[in-house]
Amino acid sequence: MTHYFLFSFFKLSENAWYQQKAGILVKALWVGWETLLRKYYDGDGVRRVWWPGGQHAYSPEFLKFLLCTKPADELGNLDDLIDCV
């Protein structure tokens, strides 16, 4: 389940990244995508466990973009996002 979610989330984020680069996705919408993308990408479990095998499904340009991102500390802890019930 986790693999499917992460694969789909990063594919959607990759698509949104290309759309904003092409000027199709407006900046105001990209800001939210990028913030959440950085939060998941910099999550310890994603980076150490899932990303080493999962990264090969994405374009070299998108991977280069991700390598240059900074953590999205403004969202707090991922546990707070997921376990809010």
Short description:
The protein is mainly α and 85 residues long. 69% of the residues lie in helices and 0% in strands.
Provide an overview of this structure.
It is a single chain. Helix 1 packs antiparallel against helix 2. 69% of the residues lie in helices and 0% in strands. With 85 residues, the protein is mainly alpha-helical. The chain has five helices and no strands.
Choose one word for the global shape. globular
Helix content: 55-70%
By secondary-structure content and strand pairing, the structural class works out as mainly alpha
How many DSSP H or I helices?
Answer: 5
* Overall number of strands: 0
The string of secondary-structure elements, in order, is HHHHH
Low-pLDDT parts are none
Largest beta sheet, briefly? none
Distance between the termini: 19 Å
Average of pLDDT = 88
Radius of gyration based on Cα positions: 13 Å
Report the sheet-strand fraction. under 5%
